[in-house]
Amino acid sequence: MTDRRTFLCEDFEISYEDTKKGWSMPYSHHHTNYEIYILLSGERLVTIGDITYRVKAGMASLFESNISHRSVGDTDYTGICIHFSKVYLEKYFLPAVVSSYLTCFKAPIIFIPEDYRQKLVDWNAASCCKSPTAYLLLAQILTDLAAFRYQYPLENEISVSENKASGFQRIINYINANYTTLQTVRDIAESCGVSESYVHRAVRRTESLTVKEYINKLRLRHLLHRLESFPYYFLAFNIILVFSITHAQDFQYSVHVK
Q1: pLDDT, averaged across the chain
Q2: Do 129 and 13 meet the contact criterion of CB atoms below 8 Å apart?
Q3: 214 with 175: CB under 8 angstroms?
Q4: What are the angstrom distances between the C-alpha of 248 and each of 63, 125, 252?
Q5: Strand 77-84 with 34-41, pairing
């Protein structure tokens, strides 16, 4: 699967996300920032490195600097996302102290109590990360997560296997993971070791759509998610809508992002 580097701010940010009808990241990505994603509602399959976890409401996913990660899911979900850089912490704390704060990232998934989740929502609403003393809030959050790691151990309960999918579901999983780059049904068939007719049948029976319709649906949903999550996204990209009604096996992008 493709892995891309993304670039984020060098400071400390908290944001709230509310996504309807689910969303699957089209590729794994990594960045120098540390990231914490607290799932408030819904359920996601989160891949960190080579391991996939079933993450439910109340759990936080922790992504270390430059670790490849991705999440997928088809349910509505809400969450709090925290980004920060090591450089930001080093502005205010000695290296040994910074290292101690980052120990919580040794656990990829941590359970967060309900009352603490509400605190995070309130801190986000109050834009506390913009305060001159925001670094103290971040230090407290990291310290609390480290404590929750031992209070609510989860590691043995949430890792999942990706090798049990049915034949049809394996096709859907492959499309979900590669829909931004697929061009023809043959691409899918050759990668999954099946016939093109099998691909058509798998998508029709599981999604009640043609292959082209399903891929275009994923691409449109991806674009809408980007526009909702990043309000200035449209300033950086030229978006051209192209709807093709011919060539059933030709996956012309419903949305081209250049």
Answers
A1: 81
A2: yes
A3: yes
A4: 39, 47, 10
A5: antiparallel
Residue type, 18: D
Q: Find, among 232, 225, 234, the residue nearest to 18 by Cα.
A: 225
For the chain, percent of residues with pLDDT exceeding 90: 43
Q: How many other C-beta atoms are found inside a 10 Å radius of the C-beta of residue 213?
A: 15
Highest mean pLDDT among 58-72, 192-206, 221-235: 58-72
- Contacts for 54 with CB less than 8 Å, ≥ 6 apart: 43, 44, 45, 158, 159, 160
pLDDT of residue 256: 40
Q: Which tens digits make up the pLDDT trace of 166-188?
A: 678 888 888 887 888 888 898 89
Question: Is a pLDDT exceeding 90 seen at residue 135?
Answer: yes
d(CA 50, CA 60): 18
Q: E strands within 11-84?
A: 12-19, 28-30, 34-41, 43-48, 51-56, 59-63, 69-72, 77-84
Distance, CA of 36 to CA of 55 (rounded, Å): 13
